Every structure is written in C-alpha cells, then in structure tokens.
Amino acid sequence: xxxxxxxxxxxxxxxxxxxxxxxxxxxVSEPEKTKWLLGDRELAESENYVFSHADEGGNRKKLTCLxxxxxxxxxxxxxxxxxSSDGENSATFTVSVGDAPEFHxxxxxxxxxxxxxxxxxxxxxxxxxxxxxxxxxxxxxxxTDRVKAVVKKDDKDKDGYQYLLEITGPIKEDEAKYxxxxxxxxxxxxxxxxxxxx
Length: 198
Description:
- One of its GO terms (biological process) is homophilic cell adhesion via plasma membrane adhesion molecules.
- InterPro entries: Cell_Adh-Cytoskel_Orgn (IPR050958), Ig-like_dom (IPR007110), Ig-like_dom_sf (IPR036179), Ig-like_fold (IPR013783), Ig_I-set (IPR013098).
- This protein has 198 residues and is mainly β.
- It has strands spanning 5-15, 18-26, 35-38, 41-42, 49-57, 60-67, 76-84, 87-95, 102-103, 108-112, 117-125, 131-136, 139-140, 147-153, 160-168, 176-184, 187-195.
- It has no helices and 17 strands.
- Strands 9, 10, 11, 14 and 15 form a five-stranded antiparallel beta sheet that branches. The protein has a four-stranded antiparallel beta sheet with strand order 1-2-6-5, with no helix packed on it. Strands 4-3-7-8 form a four-stranded antiparallel beta sheet, with no helix packed on it.
- The termini are far apart.
C-alpha cells in the first residue's frame, strides 16, 4: 500500500459568507483522524470551524472544513493532513480575504444642465472585476433613452469606478428609493437613497 493520495484538485468554495475547503483523497484508513491546520496551528472544531468527511465510493473520501462567517482574520494558508497505515499526505489551501466591493462614500445626487439631468452617483472599488445593478423600489431599473446607467473610471482611485444613474427630464414618477448593488466574484455590497423632488 502507498500513503494516501489527493484525487483531483482541492477546492475552495465561497458562498453566503462561509468558505468551504474540500479535498477528495484515496487510501485514507481513518478520515476522522484528519488534522486541519492554519499555518502551523492545528484547528479544533468550534463555532467557526466545522469538519466533516463523506464516502465518495471507489475508496475515495471527501474531507471538508467549513469556515463559518469568514472574515479577514481567518485568511491564510490552511492545510489538511490525512493518514493511512502507510504514511501521511497533505493538501494546502490558500484562502485569501473575501473582498466584496467597497464604497468610497455615501451615494449622492448631482444636478446638471440646470436641473434637467439628475445623476445618482455611487463610487465603489474592488480588486476584482465588478458590476453594478440599479433598482428602483426594489425592482430592476428599466433603462431607456431617458434613464441611463453609466460606468466610468474613478479619477480619485485607480481601483475605483463611478456608477451613475442619469435621469434626463425628471418627472414625478422618477421619485423612488433607488438602490445600487455592486458585485464581484467574492461578494456584493449595496447603497440606497431616496430621490424626491421639492
């Protein structure tokens, strides 16, 4: 027999604020003896860390470590050490901080063209590609020739963008609660404001 082997690629799955580390291994005799480490420190099960294993068939076992409510202090290099009677092996996971987009400041309204154009302006930054979605009273904004969503580089921050919702010839029906949801692959963030005319 040989020491246990890793089957396929170890995975890092991020969802709903939690991060799951997952590795499928072959030849592990006692999966419950798997040790999970962060750096050199062995982890114990706690409200932050939940360990489990499942039989995948064909002498394969899936070992998982669920990191709950993942936040910056929990980032780092994780390792799963697993054993058989013939030796040990390990899988390494580098878990970086889940960085949802961040906002620079509160959203604000700018008037142009003597009040004929109203612009709702949101400034956000992200180290990953991000996109913005606009909502009016919690329904997606219908973009038209009169209501446009504009994206431009932020002149004050190289990682930042300005997301603008431009309303030309504002009318009473434009009064609403507007929300901008900015997303990247690691999360999302949102800001909202009420637009009302005097």
